[in-house]
Amino acid sequence: MESAREMRFPVAAGAPGSKKVQEGSKSQRRGRWRKGKAKASRLSHSMDLRTVTQSLVTLAEDNMAFFSSQGPGETARRLSGVFAGVREQALGLEPTLGRLLSVAHLFDLDAETPANGYRSLVHTARCCLVHLLHKSRYVASNRRSIFFRTSHNLAELEAYLTALTQLRALAYYAQHLLATNQPGRLFFEGDERVIADFLHEYITLHKGCFYGRCLGFQFTPAIRPFLQTVSIGLVSFGEHYKRNETGLSVTASSLFTGGRFAIDPELRGAEFERIVQNLDVHFWKTFWNITEIQVLSSLANMASATVRVSRLLSLPPITFEMPLTADPKVMVTISPPLAHTGPGPVLVRLISYDLREGQDSEELSSLGRSEGPRSLELRSRPQQAPRSRCLVVHIHGGGFVAQTSKSHEPYLKSWAQELGAPILSIDYSLAPEAPFPRALEECFYAYCWAVKHCALLGSTGERICLAGDSAGGNLCFTVSLRAAAYGVRVPDGIMAAYPATMLQATASPSRLLSLMDPLLPLSMLSKCVNAYAGGETEDHCDSDQKALGMVGLVQRDTALLLRDLRLGASSWLNSFLELSGQKSHPNSVPIAEPMRCSVSETALAQPESPLGKDSLKGLTLHDLSLRGSSETPDTPQLSLSAEARGHSTPSAVNILLRPEDASEESEAGDELSTKDRVYAAFPEGFHPRRSSHDAKQVTLYSSPILKNPFMSPLLAPDSMLQTLPPVHIVACALDPMLDDSVMFARRLRSLSQPVTLRVVEDLPHGFLSLAALCQETRQAAALCVERIRLVLNPPGPPV
Questions:
Q1: Could you tell me the pTM of the whole model?
Q2: Catalytic residues
């Protein structure tokens, strides 16, 4: 008697019924299915937004009618309901996206660079619609088949319906930003209470759907397996961290115990949401440093380019002098870093593809620091390459709280090979143990040391490029601003990959993408900024902190001690925020005696403007633009006022209030009119899903120091930005920090400063660390190398 399968699928007449032939035909069918899916995907991506929406609505109505006719079963009822929901959300979302897209061009840098947060949000929503379109087509084609996986398809449809609902809420938020912001501005500028209201509404939205089945749907498909691996590792490590099975030490075993999270996307998404919302900055610091454990670091080095020189150096905290650019006969003193912890060495890593003159000198060898058994020792070689005319000074990213040059070494080795220039990567001290301005001081000191001792590094120093990613990009800008303030040589150009230029807590359309970004969730961004700004405070009722273990308690006590020292020195820290009202004398030159304080930027002499003496605390971008346009740069003073400029206490504003707390806040803010509130007034009947996790611990750190131009260079006055060298920015279209790059490039362009902005599609923040992952990341990394090459080898004038 024939089996059921043989009865339904008989072997064709005249065809051999061998297993080999059956496997071959199965393989051919699978190949045809893949080709058909790829063709359908290309067709969908070529369709405009309205066509995609109409096609999705038509398919949803067809599937809804089919499953409604299948009887009273629970599965059929849920499938019918999910397609009804898809139809409703798609029809409600399309008009809002159309309005955003119709004005998005007003926020672009130029016609050749169509990129800003509004465009990115529309693109992300469209990706979700396209995925639902593909799934609806699949269901319509296979719903009668006995091989139709009802439960799997229902779970995926429900997950993407939730994601579409949340994206619709984000679209309404973006629409309110568009109506509230000043014309042409991407960042909201206004009352902090309004921002707190907006962020309260925004961050309490449910996020777990974006970390489960929908994880990374907006990125290129080659990235998604990596993101899934990272998410599984993160939730597994989070469990170990919470139970104190690893404390603050990282072991590889903690990353491979998440089997249940791998097979249950909903559980993974819920746990991911809990972790990113509630665990502290120490968890993120530990997790991001996983790449530096011996096993993973060795694997990364095996896959990277082989270089002759890769060694860690320790620069002693010694004062030295450098010539002023305006008058090389006058010397200015460069003091070692002093903030918070006093003078201390600065670690740097020298990477060179070839062994060049000076790199094996006794003077450089005396600065070498052993890295243990994994150290790459420099050996004398009979032949040396001549010194390169170029030098790259690199500053790594990591949210100001994590990673070192070792984490970024794989792609830096490739850079050294492709550029043919030595690279000096700076290992600055990390927050929260060493908050602002310690990292800036160390990077500036190392940069000046590199300029002065470039011969030891194998370079003549004819062309110097500052390069960095994320937080490192921020430090590249601020180091250059500080070099200009001192009057010493500024770099010949800056290459910043996805930099953070606005650290002040505010809202922008690209910031909305942090709701679904697994690498840059908003709560984590807030924790990193808090730590860098010195706002890391003691948690009084968090049971998770009790599980830190001895090592964790020591680190926490150290951080608290440093915090007390910072509060004690708040009077001179606050002076960072104000510019001197005294101009330097036209004939005066900066004195060359050592500076006694670490915040020399406060001595930038700026003329008092009509906007008032409190120059930076209350200014908007528009005010700063007006302020700088009428100023003429003078020689900056490098001395500090002996008097304190007033005490400023940072305040932490809770943006995740419970309903009873929210009512108290609303009473305190009655003077705000309804039209001034930023949070979205959703259409009647639309209710996005709210987070089920208690998020009251996430705070918005509000302090004047966040407006310091050496912390948020986007807020620097025009006169400071005009001192920057040519700037090349490489940003990601789907990065929550995209608007930082766009607005910074627009400000530089408005000042006629040389700036380029290139935006890569479908890649996440931090793609440089993923350069070896796929073709798209390799191409993006190559674009960064091309931008650096423009600085090191600028094109000559046209003949």
A1: 0.80
A2: 470
